[in-house]
Request: fold
Amino acid sequence: MSEFQVHAALTTPFRDDGWVDLAALRAHVHLLMDDGLDGIVPAGTTGEGPLLEEAEAGAVIATAVEAAAGRIEVIAHVGRASTPATVRLARAASSSGADALLAVTPYYFAHDADALLAHYRALLASVEPTPVLAYTFPARSGNELPAEVLDTLAGEGLAGLKDSTGSPEQHAEYLEVARRHAGLRVFVGAERLALQSLRGGGAGAISALANARADVLLRLREEDSEEALAAVRSARDELPGIPQLKQAVGRRLAELGASYPVAPRAPLAA
Reply:
């Protein structure tokens, strides 16, 4: 396994009746394993996680773990707006056999550093020894994760971070925290910053694009070049959102004789 890992922020297929298409999900996981990815992250932003009911998110995570069968890492996203809901889903994901857990900062309401510390401390205590990673995506959650909070939590057992701020400066701060804490894994979520992260000692990319174009991210990992990064950016421009990513996954699986429904869940479907 490469030092700079590539994980897919897994999309979620839905049947016509609205329930998650677990057979299509399995087929997609198998395809990603064949692509050579290091891991998958089910039920996150790209997986329309905030639109999943708790039982649905649990089923997506359990199915992803089953399909991966220990061949690749499964980092299950369990973040919810409240601490109790996050803890419930985290415990279910841990019981399902997820290798690690990822939790976005609590969203909608504004939270200060003390509230964020309390939230992640409660999560860490509830699922020990399963590794927990924080996830910062302030454009969606409304809450940033300050580097100082990451530094404190890293000293208390937090295993890592997914950074989707899209800020080169913020990512550099997180990588600096990782240099002070052996084993702290900082993943980049914004593909355009993947080369910066690779060169700065990041743990890898948790990428939406990897659902359909793992090849360009694996090329970046191998070549460590501006040309490879340009290919990543070009592919992302062609597949800018969840609908386009799901359509691309559907086309790839159709070539293999597998069905993959591509409609997002409402209101994204509108």
Remarks:
- The mean pLDDT is 97.
